[in-house]
Design brief:
The chain is α+β, with helices and mostly antiparallel strands and about 200 residues long. Helices cover about 20% and strands about 30% of the residues.
Length: about 200
């Protein structure tokens, strides 16, 4: 009989302790307080360069484009030279390092004019924002390269600040136009991009 009473007391003690833990746990849950920061969104930055369509206008959205239609240079002989003006802006929120490259397929240049055509890049500070190259607006040359070197080496244009316009003079010229290249033509694309 003594053994039975001890077991009963032990069971009562366990029941009492268990009930206390449950009541204490409920009391703890009743006074707990939580706050939430829900629905936090993360969006990556966009890295975008745009050309200005009209060189005498600003960076309004209607004046920005990702692509310009190329022009036709005709009647090229040795010693030929012609300037082409562009303005580029960085529409993203951060500064970025920009390069310029030639891009072409060799089947679009069957006479290999890429070895005879050159480009020389100059920064262009359009002081009066008229979209015309005036005296005193041409910066120091960034170098002169054949189209082949423009494709393989490119031009480092440095850091572009956000929402600032950068003007460039692309001075195209020719050399070594042989008799075999008379009447030949080639199609080339030129790019401005962010170095990854």
């Amino acid at each position: 009989m003594i053994n039975i009473k001890i077991k009963l007391k032990f069971k009562r003690l366990i029941s009492f302790l268990l009930a206390g833990v449950l009541v204490g746990g409920a009391a703890y849950a009743a006074i707990s307080n939580k706050i939430y920061m829900k629905g936090t969104s993360f969006t990556t930055a966009t890295v975008e360069l745009k050309f200005l369509k009209n060189l005498s206008q600003g960076i309004g959205i209607e004046n920005l484009t990702s692509e310009l239609t190329g022009i036709t240079f005709d009647g090229i002989l040795n010693g030929w030279q012609q300037d082409y003006l562009v303005k580029v802006t960085n529409t993203s929120r951060k500064n970025m390092n920009v390069w310029s490259y030639a891009n072409y397929q060799t089947d679009q240049d069957p006479a290999s004019l890429r070895y005879s055509l050159n480009v020389e890049l100059f920064p262009w500070n359009d002081l009066n924002n008229d979209g015309v190259l005036d005296s005193g607006e041409e910066g120091a040359s960034l170098g002169k390269k054949t189209f082949v070197k423009w494709k393989t080496e490119g031009f480092d244009l440095g850091s572009f600040e956000s929402n600032k316009v950068y003007g460039y003079i692309l001075r195209f010229s020719s050399a070594d136009i042989t008799d075999a290249k008379q009447g030949a033509s080639g199609i080339f694309d030129f790019e401005f991009g962010v170095l990854q």
